[in-house]
Amino acid sequence: MPAKELSRPCMDCKEAETVFTVRKRQLCSDCYKHFIAFKVHRRMEIYRPGKTQEVRPKILLPLSLGVSSSVLLSMVEAQIQHQLAKPYGKVFFDLHVLVIDPSSINPSNASIDDNYKVLLETFQSPAYTRLSIHDIFDYVPDMKEIIHEYAGSQFADDSSLSNEDRLSAFRASISTATSAADLDYVLLTRLVAAVAQKHGCKSVFWGDSDSRLAARALAGVSKGRGASMTWQVSDGMSPWGVRFEFPLRDLYKTELLQYASVCPELSDIVIPDAPLSDNVLTKNLSIDELMIRYVQNQGAKYPGIMSNVARTANKLESSCIEGGASCALCGGPRGNVKGNTGVTATTQSGDSEGSQFCYGCMRSRPDLKC
Ligand SMILES: [Zn+2]
Ligand SMILES: [Zn+2]
Q: Has residue 63 got a pLDDT over 80?
């Protein structure tokens, strides 16, 4: 169809109507998807096989079935299919998708059985693993002992319980929303890293948008986790010998929502975000939730500021010193290490049983109501 017959032709192809305006570009849905996906695909270039590479690396993609990680999977899969379709095309890596059941983290989350079934039918080439959060005890055998030590005398750890009940009892002992969200994030990160190690993955592709990374950077500092921000927001090596990468770091959450809206194959896979209620008391929200709200509200008005936060955080250099003491729970540097706060945390009773843990983890302990 000639461009002159269109009321608002797409700026790129000039053959279809504009559907989205993104970063001052008016694009049809196909060109929008191409424009957005390019920002992710160019981050995959470091995996382009060289002449000397003999073994194709494996990449782990943790999928929450939320919009962001589902869009990331869709983009990466599209790139792999594109590479496979070329006559002499080489696939950059093999993809392994990890789904940690959301209902194992919060029982109020609905079953994902139907979504998972559609996922396997839609994207057939990756390998899949589906786990519950309490499977961390199988993947990180030391975790039972670590949690027992970490919880301290205020928590009666019962080793006769099942993994599921034992972890539930520990999580239920955490008194504040901030500490509970903080520890859930630590446990999820440890489980993802352990699965990546077990399957010999070179990297983990996290589905965090620019907005989410900005919120995490701001929340991390206020939770005393500044020293471990490096691998939580910037691309590079994690303490577990697996690279952590954030391929969606150039994209805002609103752009990912728009992308998902023109991907019909995702409609029965994605679990939409629960709407942010204005009626929730602020004191009942974790710092992470507060920061996500703040970034979403401010990011809508001033997107440049939030992308600056995430971009600046990506320039952080690791403060982990070779051989330096690291936290048994989260893997971050412990106190008195270059780059850390140098604060030594103690429990209210003044004991020192928490000394194998960092300041950020100590603040979330069951007996520290802060
Ligand atoms: Zn177009
Ligand atoms: Zn820690």
A: yes
